[in-house]
């Protein structure tokens, strides 16, 4: 694998912060592959695969899917790539996932370029999710499940802020404002 071509960006932030929205645009404009574990899992649920049957009830309750299932998905995705030019959206979400990803990326010679953290106040996050729920068809876009997802984020994913800050990768971005404004802030932290 050619190391100089590799690029790895990890979008971190609570549910509804805009990770998927911003990752999609950055991937398109910088010719990167977006790997959204939420989208991959929802596809499995829709197709009724074995993974989908395990993940579906957990997602509907706002809980995380077990680390080993996630890591198998990520390993498969990365193994199929000629160069690792990716944006992770919604992954990693636990310290165990982050540690395993570090090992995998080291094997592939693909260091992390940056970890933008999108910061948005809790109440705005809930209103964005509930608003999206009107049209998204996502089982987890109700206020009650969104609040549970926030709790899970606080307990299991927030420790990754310190994890990536300690490694010098963290770039804090104000996620409030228009999508264009937020995107400009992300670009300026990446440059
Ligand atoms: P996942 O699909 O990753 O959901 P999430 O992290 O909860 O994130 P969301 O998709 O809700 O929000 P987002 O930050 O991407 O914001 P978005 O751009 O959509 O995960 C779902 C579930 O899958 C998990 O609960 C878990 O069960 C499982 N799972 C996934 N990954 C896993 C992992 N690694 N380990 C274990 N389990 C895992 O924006 C939200 C809304 O706001 C949109 O409507 C958007 O249009 C709007 N919006 C965005 N930006 C703005 C803005 N600037 N102004 C106004 N509106 C905005």
From TrEMBL:
ATP binds at residues 16-21, 132, 177. It catalyses: AMP + ATP = 2 ADP. Keywords: ATP-binding, Cytoplasm, Kinase, Nucleotide biosynthesis, Nucleotide-binding, Transferase. GO terms for molecular function: AMP kinase activity; ATP binding. SUPFAM superfamilies: P-loop containing nucleoside triphosphate hydrolases. GO terms for biological process: AMP salvage. Pfam families: ADK. AMP binds at residues 37, 42, 63-65, 90-93, 97, 138, 149. Its main location: cytoplasm. It is found in: Cytoplasm. It comes from the Bacteria. GO terms for cellular component: cytoplasm. InterPro entries: Adenylat/UMP-CMP_kin, Adenylat_kinase_CS, P-loop_NTPase. Pathway: Purine metabolism; AMP biosynthesis via salvage pathway; AMP from ADP: step 1/1. Its EC number is 2.7.4.3. Residues 36-65 are annotated as: NMP. Consists of three domains, a large central CORE domain and two small peripheral domains, NMPbind and LID, which undergo movements during catalysis. The LID domain closes over the site of phosphoryl transfer upon ATP binding. Assembling and dissambling the active center during each catalytic cycle provides an effective means to prevent ATP hydrolysis. Belongs to the adenylate kinase family. NCBIfam families: PRK00279.1-3, PRK14527.1, PRK14531.1, PRK14532.1. Catalyzes the reversible transfer of the terminal phosphate group between ATP and AMP. Plays an important role in cellular energy homeostasis and in adenine nucleotide metabolism. Monomer. This is Adenylate kinase. It comes from Deinococcus puniceus. The gene is adk.
